[in-house]
Every structure is written in C-alpha cells, then in structure tokens.
Design goal:
about 0% helix, 2 domains, elongated, 5-stranded antiparallel sheet
Amino acid sequence: MGDPVVLRFDQKYYLYVSEGMAWSSEDLVHWKRQQVPLPKGRFVGAPEVFTYKGYVYMTGNNTGLLRSRNPLGPFEYLGDFTDEKGAALKPGGGVFDPMVFVDEDERVYLYYSGYSVNGIYGVELDRENLTKFLSSPSHLFRFEPSHTWEHWGDHNEYHDVAWIEAPWMTKRQGTYYLQYSASGTDWKTYAVGLYKGERPLGPFTYSPRSPILVQRHGLINGTGHHCIIEAPDGTVWALYNVLYRNWNRMFERRIAMDPVGFDAEGNMFISGPSETPQWAPGVKPQPWLGNDSGAIPVSEDKSYTVSSEAPGREAAYAIDKNVRTWWAPASDDVQPWLMLDLACPTAFDVVQEFVIDSARILFTIPAGRKPQDSPPWFRQYKIEVSSDGRTFTTVVDKTKNAADNVIEFDEIAPIQCRYVKFTITGWPKGLPVEVSEFTVFGKPGASHPQH
C-alpha cells in the first residue's frame, strides 16, 4: 500500500492509502483498520482527504470529488472537476495526485501533477462549488534537469526523464512550503523536494535543502509521496511511501513516518528516513533534532543456525538488511526457527554480549496476494535469548498473536545475551512462510574471555 494521507478530525487521525483502505488512531502509533464505503464503481487511488465547512471531502487520481459528514463515510459523489468555463477535465474528469489546501482565509486551492516532466500546477477552487476552477491553472514549476535527484532511475541515470508528482502544501508563519516528489515511486531514488513562496500560487523559489527526504542507501528506499500532519503535542510529522520491490519484482510499497523541522533560515526538512527504533510523538519535545532511541542493529550478518532453509532462500537473507531478499524454511518444517550468535566469530577475540531492547520483523507479501482481499493473516512467534546457547528465556511471546501485521516491532525489557532465537509457531494457512528481515536492536554489553 502507498500514497498515504492523514486527516485529523475530532481529535482522531484517519490514514487513507491507495487500494481503498483506511485506519484510525488517537496517537499516530496505535492504528485500527476501518471500512470506508464508497459509491459503487468508485476507486480512489492516491487519495486526498480534507475538511471544509463541516464536510469531509475525498478525491484522488482522476476521481472527481466525493463528500461525507464522517471520515469513514459513506461518501457521496459530487461530480468531476471542471475548468473555469464549466467544462469537465480530461482524462476522467479529474486530476493526478491532487492535494487540496484550505488557507486561513478559507480560500481553497488545488495542487496536482501534470504528469512526467510537466511539474506541478495549482488553481483556486470556487468555495461554493469545490469541483470548479476559478481560473486557468497556474504552472508553478516543472522538471529541472539541474536537480539531479529528479532524474529517473535507481541511479538518476535518465537525464531527460522524470516524473514530478505528489504535491503537498504546508503554511508556516506566512510562508507557503510547496513540497513534491520525484523521480518516480518505482525507483529507490524517489524523494521529496521543496519550493517556498509568499503566496499560495507563487511565485515559488527552490529550496537549497532539496531533497528534504531521500534514501541513505540503507534498508529504507523510495521515500516519497508524503503528507504532513500535526501530532497531539503540536510536533509535525511526515508519513510517506517506502519502496520494497519495483515493477519488475511485484510492485510493493509500505508506509513510514518521521518528524518535520525548520532550520534557522526557515527551510523545511524531514528528519529521516529512520531505520532504527524511534520515540513516538509526544515523547521528545523537539524530535526533529534527534529522535533515535540509541539502540543500534546488533544482528546484521551475524553467525546463525537454522531449523531449515528452502533452496535459494537461506536464512542469511533474513539478516542482510535488504527488503528484496528473504528466508524461507523447508515446506515440511512445522515450527521453523532461526538462532543468531551475536558474539565475535573468531577464537582470537573476547566474547562480546549485547543488551538488547527491541526487535523488528519484516514479513513478505507473496506476489498476487492482497491483504485487503484476504482473511486476516495472523503470524505467531516467540523470541528467546540465552548467554550459553542452552538455557533460554522468552522475551517476546506472540504465540497467540491476533494482529494482522506485515511488520512487527517488539519492545523488550533490556537483557544481556549472546544468542537470540526466533521461532515461528503459527502461520496463515496457504501462505508461504517467508521472512524478509529479522533485526535485533540494542547496545554493547559485557565481554568475557573465550571458554
């Protein structure tokens, strides 16, 4: 799932994504899956949801405009967007990657992508009929070849090709921050850029901090198509796409979240993408200045033993910091397990143990399987630790897990250990057992001589 937008309504948050799914939350941390009835035959891709004069409005790629009194619907279809003369837009009576911004004076502005290298357009909407443009759209900016990060490709190698999309408007202290994404959601280089202006339709000036969110060549790639939301404590956060596999490998995206800040010159930035445990909104007063818990990955590429491995799907793929590889046990392994030895692998060094405090599991979604069209998938497991490899203590017990999560993050009461054992105790029927990443986080603990 991808293309997130979050609406704050009556002290609750509602997260919408492409594929017609939604979740609700009170704290931006704990989410509940929700149903959103749409008019028959309506599909909303790259959704945009906003409130105006007591109504919740929804639009999306070439969708037209829908309206409801409730964030969870049911929604009614109001009509296609039209130009200032009342003629329906083409194609499909809509726009691509729309974003609607309601200014402090209640004037309403629509921003959207012109496809490919054409860039971003903006127009004011008729407040009495939000489907109608008040004038011809303004062309706010287009692909700029000197911005190397906007070039298509995993290495930005297509110098004359780009896809400028996903505008988002933020206003702060009288300045309008027009954000956008490039070079395309199917590339690892997908990132967020920024222009600034003093009026909602410009003119806009390119920010020297662009791109304000971009991969760090680690686990998290393809960071774009974001939205901005204020947390209950007043801090500001971005939710955005993360690319797992592109069009050639079963197109798959997931959602990430990091804090937003502004530097001394008033330039906006997103403090991410983060790849280690972070504090939730409300814990740190200025999360954009540093929100990391201090725990580091201690399991990457460590020595291991395993109950079984399917051909070509060795357990090393579960600890290689790569979301495009995965471990799969043998098909007849009824309770697969993977045990890591965190200590130094040579006989010439001391035995280093670690104090671990959390673990993250990234499960795969097999090609052709869509969670929204399937019964709940309950993945059940336990995590145990040991100092000698013989006596184990259970630190995570999800053997009765009843949450349909494709990503699991477990806090662990800090404990020193050498061995960490991950055992799968239950799995959805008919779904292949596959683990993309098993990561243990912590800090160095005591060391002792080799026995």
